[in-house]
Amino acid sequence: MFCYASNVLEAKTKPTKLITKLIHRNSIHSPFHNPHHSIEDKAKFIFENSLARFTNYKTDLAAGTDMGLLFLVRFYIGNPAISQLAVMDTASNLLWVQCSPNWYISRRSPIPLLDPLKSSTYASMPCKSEFCSYFPSSSCINEQCTYNISYVNAPPSTGNAATEQLLFESDENIVVVPQVIFGCSKVNKEYIDGGINGVFGLGPKKLSMARQLANKFSYCIGDFYDPNYNYNRLILGDEARLEGDTTPLEMSELHYYLNLQEISIGENTLDIDKKVFIRNITDKSKLSGVIIDSGSVATWLVNEAYYRFRNEVKRILGDSIVDTKECRWCLCYEGTMAQNLTNFPEVVYHFSEEAVLEVGFDGIFYQATASIFCMAVYPSSRLPDKPFQDATVIGVMAQQNHNVAYDLQEKKLYLESIDCQVYEG
């Protein structure tokens, strides 16, 4: 339960600014934190997460009850308010949480469940509501709007469409947001056992939290490796931090696309035909173009771009590559990032309208063992599902130390190199 008093800001309309912490799944503040995880365990997560993220097509991408979980959003729902931890996902279009009016199930659950019968602010959605048709696979049962959403590598979420009050512990105050449209999902044992309350969808479609809160949001990702790092932030609403370089933002039903022009490593621009980055909107059977994503750790490049990238890295670091147990085709070297990569040049992704994403070595490599480091840039041809093999995906590691802002109304993406600790001020 959550009690709040004089520092509450109740939003009669949608709030103009809402800043809340993002919790990395390996953070000491995360229920998934394991202090006994080894370097090898963390490396395995980077590799397997990035594969699991793209193992099916035409479904929302909140992959797996474990593998696709990168960042969590904490909020409270209902009155009395129940604490929730949901997976942030820019490739999902709905906020849903697990609900149970069953006292026995709720009592046995290790995570708090919303009981719609006990919340004074819960309202079911009638079938005649204009929003019912926007829910995935919506149907009508006893004049109640229901939904069914499928996920990659994970159980579906099935339940009732509804509205409910949300509370956020913002950096400035406690913000109450009334009448948020969400999915009240039937309890699924796999999600409960995995410690997941639900999904905080920030995708492009009408019911996502991005669309419900002023069509703008931004996130700032800092040190991806430090479990004590506490400055990752999500900003929702009109005052999302829209600063830095801008580039056009394209949207499909599930993804955000960018126009990548070229890639440079240090002073060398890679000899890549721009056509390999162009999105083919006429072929609905597969993905193409360049996606910016919050759920994949690594970056995936189409083959031509990947091998140009790989060859330039080999030119810089040498040909003495080594194999690892987890990934025989990954580019790996003996040594440590701290000792061997201090002089590695910056990688820059150049987007249209002169926007750039500047990536240091810690956004390109990861420590695989105590004595081996590997490149976290992979060829899309290695993805298990063929529909993804023509796509390039900019993963979270490459977005470290940046504020990334999405303006869905103006169809612009903002990229700003920044220390996320500025939000503490």
UniProtKB/TrEMBL annotation:
GO terms assigned for molecular function: aspartic-type endopeptidase activity
Any one GO cellular component localisation term in the record: extracellular region
Keyword flag Oxidoreductase: no
This protein's UniProt keywords: Aspartyl protease, Glycoprotein, Hydrolase, Protease
Matching InterPro entries: Pepsin-like_plant, PEPTIDASE_A1, Peptidase_aspartic_dom_sf, Plant_Aspart_Prot_A1, TAXi_C, TAXi_N
UniProt keyword Secreted, yes or no: no
PANTHER family: EUKARYOTIC ASPARTYL PROTEASE FAMILY PROTEIN, OS07G0603500 PROTEIN-RELATED
Family: Belongs to the peptidase A1 family.
Protein name (database record): Peptidase A1 domain-containing protein
Organism encoding this protein: Manihot esculenta (Cassava)
